[in-house]
Amino acid sequence: MAWHLFRLGRWSFVHRKLVAAIWVGLLLIGIAGASTLDTKTDDGFSLTGIESTEAFDLIADRSGQTADGATARMVFEAPEGQSLTTPENQQAITEALAATRTDHVQSVTDPFTTGTVSDNGRAAYATITYNIPVTDIVETDTAALESGKDLATEAGINSAVGGSATAPEQEVPLGELIGIGVAVIVLAITFGSLVAAGMPLLTALIGVGIGILGITVLSAFVTLSSVTSALGTMLGLAVGIDYALFIMSRYQSEVKHGRPLDEAAGKAVGTAGGAVIFAGLTVIIALAGLSVCGIGFLTQMGLGGAFMVLIAVLVALTLLPAILGFAGTKVLGGKIKGLEGRDPEDTNVRSNGQRWVEAVSKNKVAALIAGLLVAGVVSLPIASMELALPDDGVAPSGTDSRVAFDTIADNFGAGANGPLVVVIDTADAANPVAAVNTAVQQLRSLDSDVAAIVAPVPEALAPQLDAVGFTTVQIVPVSGPSDTATKELVSNIRDTLSDLPADTGARALVTGQTAVGVDIADELTSVFPIYLAVVVGLAFILLMLVFRSILVPLKAAFGFLLSVGISLGATVAVFQWGWLADLIGVDTTSPVVFILPLLLTGILFGLAMDYEVFLVSRMREAYVHGTEAKQAVIVGFQHSARVVVAAAVIMFGVFAGFALTDQVIIKTIGFALAIGILADAFLVRMMIVPAIMAIVGDKMWWLPKWLDRLLPNLDIEGEALTDKLDTPELAMAGASHSAGHPLQSARHEA
Q1: 46 pLDDT more than 80
Q2: Same domain for 268 and 340?
Q3: Which residue has the higher pLDDT, 339 or 431?
Q4: Which of the listed residues 308, 332, 349 is the one where a domain comes to its end?
Q5: Is 148 left (phi over 0), alpha (psi -120 to 50) or beta?
Q6: Is the dihedral of CA 461, 467, 473, 474 positive or negative?
Q7: Could you tell me which of 211, 206, 202, 205 has the C-alpha nearest to residue 308?
Q8: What is the pTM of this model?
Q9: Are residues 3 and 74 in the same domain?
Q10: How confident is the model at residue 588 (pLDDT cuts 50, 70, 90)?
Q11: Of 268, 308, 312, 703, which shows the fewest CB atoms inside 10 Å?
């Protein structure tokens, strides 16, 4: 494989104009498609085949109305000392609500007839329901909401609008800017040259651009979540820079050791490129593996992220050598005063990485115990982790959504922001009215966390049941939508009504935001073992092929579990407990975003294997070239640690930048990944892994002989490639090939 990659790298270097034209052409096609097609996103989370969404389908089938259509809540609050119940204020609110009506509005509640006016008369809210999903909300609808809000404000009434129908507030692309800024600084320090530092960044940005434009074009045909593109950007930028960094570092080293530029590009791709391919494959497997869960929004995120990683790998293997061809010897120029990019392959210089790994190897047992203790302590908060759907209660302070949420909670109770709906299906009931009355009576027996029960009007019940065969009962909890007590209430309601079919022939379905969250969380929990088995199993086989060892993949998986534990523990401590929350702009505590454990497992597993491949492949390279096992750990670490540290810091910077955004899902994912990368690169891969390998020694590379004969030799270390390049015949062929390319035959002596 190394030889084929060598040929690809050198071919891309020589035919740089063609390679660059292909990638630029893809970029232009993406720009044209994204700018001309009508794209849509949907940030809702839904899942078919669960009770809460089955209730939505029942309502839609029987009544023809969209039960899970977009909604908005308009909140009104009178100034201190005034009341909304005065004729003037009532008239102003009526006019404001009338202004919100469009062709897509299904209903607008009147707070003065539905009882959604606070006891002191200062606050009220109305619910605007649409007959279309969130994805079909148009500018006319959001403009009407703003118009109604403005009318109330002009009348002296404070007003805010929240809910799914509101237009998302645009953010400055802070995550991308911070990530790029960190990357520039780290790359400049690593290479000591602005020219060299700019190349990994340039190729990563081109790759991210092509990938995101591709996802945007796809969203014109398939409804995607905005989280899909944000997650893709995050991953594409991080791995794109890292992969190019590894190849670029190897290229500089080869040139400094006297290889012709085209041959150096081929050698860099043939060696470091092999590690990039297998590191990328582990990420792709982990992300694409999310599709085995059968959950639409997770599949979208996983496949979108996998696509971005694939683009990053292809760009690093082809576009980077082409750009190196354009740069020529300038890639070693542009030195920054005071910074000197040290060659990580130079064994004559005793590096900090070498000092570190020697200390770890010398105190291997103590280092292992210390590392495990740190991982264990930081992981402890997982024991109290709670999961929930994100709601407007975690929106940034001062935004309309947050103001509306807080106003309702302060004046009507936290549960008013997330009422539960019980759909009573009487199609098979012998006496439909009696069945509903039985269900309502059983619901009234609930003695905990129920603030109010809104039952159907008795006079209208029989005609409604005759017409559509169902009715609804609304239950307002005392606790908020994401509180544990509300989740328990969902279970209590279902338990209470479990005998309804046997007793009356009717059935009850519980739905609402919290019920949807509970059902999806249960579904995610049930598919998680399947996902973990598939991903870890495939990655284990892949790593066994790469390292020709059984213990190395086992050690890698064990280290990954430690990284996930640290990441989730820190996330619970910050987002749920509020520790140091102000540092990243978390102004209210809340349960962890419900998709995080599964999504984090997939992403972090792939990224953790990146560092495993980059570090351990250099250790194996030294081992297969005859270095004693324990010394091979030191030699491999010395050669790769500097670049791995740079890559980890860059990836941390990218993820940390996204942790400072306002969108709670992206903020949580960014924070969890940033902590996970720090833990995996510095604690696990640079402390625990060398300690374990030093303790185990030669046995770490053990592989049964029968299995050794079955596994193909992938030559990821480039041993066969080095032998070929060192033969006189190939050297002469390389010189002859370079004769017609003066730029390629240039050498730079270290």
Answers
A1: no
A2: yes
A3: 431
A4: 349
A5: alpha
A6: negative
A7: 211
A8: 0.82
A9: no
A10: confident
A11: 703
